[in-house]
């Protein structure tokens, strides 16, 4: 056994790891500086009090802590499923199965986009500017359609029933939303379908990602 060669390899591996840690640390610092600088610019140039940007919305508004509880849980589930799928994709899961990889990518992007949209109320904000909400949601629908398309080819290898349940639940929520303003009590039904759809999708993406990573690890 070449002890000297083994020791040298360990030292080089440690140096590369330290260099990688240093680069990631610089990236985090840079992103933090950009974020904080943006807050200062918003405060000084646009008159947006930094306090309103850094505090929890309910703390600022003085509302009970449970306000928006289900909506916040939905955002968590959106991101959980999205991060799981994108992590598996970036890790090279399903490299020999193109439809699986594309399903992971489309599912991760869709879930992540929906999470950001729900968190920041993006499509509602754009809609108030005069842009039809149906037009704003086109990218969301394209990503969901792409996920379903590729999932069709791997339906025997994944828990496809969960994806079907997610699409049906989200579709019902969208349909109920179209009439919920005119009928009392339908907002509860709409949000009920929505949170179920998000949970179904999060579990589907998480299980599919886990299976893809496990298959890759066994090779």
TrEMBL record:
<feature type="transmembrane region" description="Helical">
    <location>
        <begin position="24"/>
        <end position="46"/>
    </location>
</feature>
<keyword id="KW-0812">Transmembrane</keyword>
<feature type="transmembrane region" description="Helical">
    <location>
        <begin position="134"/>
        <end position="154"/>
    </location>
</feature>
<protein>
    <recommendedName>
        <fullName>DUF998 domain-containing protein</fullName>
    </recommendedName>
</protein>
<feature type="transmembrane region" description="Helical">
    <location>
        <begin position="161"/>
        <end position="180"/>
    </location>
</feature>
<feature type="transmembrane region" description="Helical">
    <location>
        <begin position="103"/>
        <end position="122"/>
    </location>
</feature>
<keyword id="KW-0472">Membrane</keyword>
<feature type="transmembrane region" description="Helical">
    <location>
        <begin position="192"/>
        <end position="213"/>
    </location>
</feature>
<feature type="transmembrane region" description="Helical">
    <location>
        <begin position="66"/>
        <end position="91"/>
    </location>
</feature>
<keyword id="KW-1133">Transmembrane helix</keyword>
């Amino acid at each position: 056994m070449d002890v000297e060669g083994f020791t040298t390899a360990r030292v080089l591996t440690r140096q590369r790891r330290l260099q990688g840690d240093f680069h990631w640390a610089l990236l985090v610092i840079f992103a933090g500086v950009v974020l904080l600088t943006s807050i200062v610019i918003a405060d000084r140039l646009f008159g947006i009090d930094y306090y309103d940007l850094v505090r929890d919305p309910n703390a600022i508004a003085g509302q009970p802590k449970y306000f928006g509880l289900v909506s916040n849980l939905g955002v968590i589930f959106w991101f959980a499923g999205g991060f799981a799928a994108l992590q598996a994709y970036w890790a090279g899961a399903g490299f020999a199965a193109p439809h699986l990889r594309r399903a992971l990518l489309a599912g991760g992007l869709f879930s992540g986009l929906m999470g950001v949209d729900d968190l920041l109320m993006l499509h509602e904000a754009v809609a108030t500017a005069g842009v039809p909400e149906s037009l704003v949601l086109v990218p969301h629908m394209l990503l969901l359609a792409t996920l379903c398309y590729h999932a069709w080819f791997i339906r025997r290898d994944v828990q496809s029933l969960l994806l079907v349940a997610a699409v049906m639940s989200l579709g019902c929520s969208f349909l109920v939303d179209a009439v919920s303003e005119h009928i009392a009590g339908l907002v509860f039904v709409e949000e009920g379908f929505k949170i179920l759809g998000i949970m179904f999708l999060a579990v589907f993406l998480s299980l599919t990602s886990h299976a893809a990573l496990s298959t890759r690890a066994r090779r």
